[in-house]
Amino acid sequence: MKRPAIIALTGSIGMGKSTVAAMFEGAGIPVFDADAEVRRLQQPRGDLIEPIEAAFPGSTGPGGVDRDALGQMVFGDKEALARLEAIVHPAVARARQEFLIEHGNAPLVLFDIPLLFEKGGQENVDAVVVVSAPAEVQRRRVLARPGMTPDKFAHILSLQTPDTEKREKADYVIDTGLPLSETEDAVIELIAVLQKRFS
Ligand SMILES: CC(C)(COP(=O)(O)OP(=O)(O)OC[C@H]1O[C@@H](n2cnc3c(N)ncnc32)[C@H](O)[C@@H]1O)[C@@H](O)C(=O)NCCC(=O)NCCS
Ligand SMILES: Nc1ncnc2c1ncn2[C@@H]1O[C@H](COP(=O)(O)OP(=O)(O)OP(=O)(O)O)[C@@H](O)[C@H]1O
C-alpha cells in the first residue's frame, strides 16, 4: 500500500527543531510534532493526566500536568524518567499512526521526534534530518530560557545522544547556527531534494 515518505526531524535541546519544523509546515509539508502531542495529552482532561497523577502524585492540577514540577521529579532520576516515558511514549506512537493515516495521500510527511536516536526510532523512517548548531550557540539559546540552569542543561545533555553522533547518523543536516533566513533557504532546498528522491 502506498504511504507517504516519512522524514524524521531530530536534534538536541535548543538546536532548533521546532523552528525548522515550522518552516517545513509553512512549505506545505504535514508535520507531526511529538512534543506538541505530549503537551496536548498533558492538558486538562488529556488522556495522560490520570496515569501521570497516579505515578507521580502532586504533578497535576487544574492546569493539567505541572511540567515544572514533573520535570523536577524526573530529570535527575533515571528510574522516574523511564516510568514517565513508559506512560507517554505509547500514547505518542498511537497519535503518530493516526496522523499517518490522516495524511495517507501526502507524498512526504515530517515527524518531529526529539528522542529519535535515543529510542532507536530511526529504523522506522525513510530519511533522517538533524538540526545542529555550534555548542556555544546551543548553550546560549538554552540558558536564555526561563527556569533553565547550567546544571539542568548539563543533565539534559547527558541524557541525549551527542550532537556529533547525531550528525554522523543523519541523512541530511540543517545548520541552525545561521541567520533564520539562511536556514529557511536550506530547508526549502532540502524539501526539493526530498520531493525528488521520494517521488
Ligand atoms: C518532564 C517534562 C514534563 C518537562 O517539561 P518541560 O516543559 O519542563 O521541558 P521540555 O519538555 O521542554 O524538555 C526540555 C528538554 O529536555 C528534553 N527531554 C524531555 N524529555 C526527555 C527525555 N525523556 N529524555 C531526554 N531528554 C528529554 C527535551 O527534548 C528538551 O530538549 C516533559 O519533558 C515530558 O513530559 N517528558 C516526557 C516525555 C518525553 O519523553 N518527551 C520528549 C519526546 S516526545
Ligand atoms: N537559524 C536558526 N534556525 C533555527 N532556530 C534559530 C535560528 N536562529 C535563531 N534561532 C532561534 O533558536 C531557538 C531554537 O529553539 P527551538 O524551540 O526551535 O529548539 P528545539 O530544538 O525545538 O528545542 P527543545 O529541544 O528544547 O524543545 C529559537 O528561539 C529560534 O528563533
From TrEMBL:
A GO CC annotation given for this chain: cytoplasm
Which UniProt keyword terms apply here? ATP-binding, Coenzyme A biosynthesis, Cytoplasm, Kinase, Nucleotide-binding, Transferase
The places in or outside the cell where this protein is found are: Cytoplasm
Report the GO molecular function annotations.
Answer: ATP binding; dephospho-CoA kinase activity
Superkingdom is Bacteria
The UniProt annotation places ATP binding at G14, M15, G16, K17, S18, T19
Cross-referenced Pfam families, in alphabetical order? CoaE (PF01121)
Q: Which Gene3D superfamilies match?
A: P-loop containing nucleotide triphosphate hydrolases (3.40.50.300)
Q: List the pathway annotation.
A: Cofactor biosynthesis; coenzyme A biosynthesis; CoA from (R)-pantothenate: step 5/5
- InterPro entries under this entry? Depp_CoAkinase (IPR001977), P-loop_NTPase (IPR027417)
| Catalysed reaction equations from the record | 3'-dephospho-CoA + ATP = ADP + CoA + H(+)
Q: What class of enzyme is it?
A: transferase
Please tell me whether the keyword Transferase is annotated for this protein: yes
SUPFAM superfamilies to which the protein is assigned, alphabetical:
P-loop containing nucleoside triphosphate hydrolases
Leader sequence segment: none
GO BP: coenzyme A biosynthetic process
The record's EC number reads 2.7.1.24
Q: Which family does it belong to?
A: Belongs to the CoaE family.
According to its UniProt entry, what is the function of this protein? Catalyzes the phosphorylation of the 3'-hydroxyl group of dephosphocoenzyme A to form coenzyme A.
The protein's matches in NCBIfam families, at most eight in alphabetical order, are given as:
dephospho-CoA kinase
Protein name, as recorded: Dephospho-CoA kinase
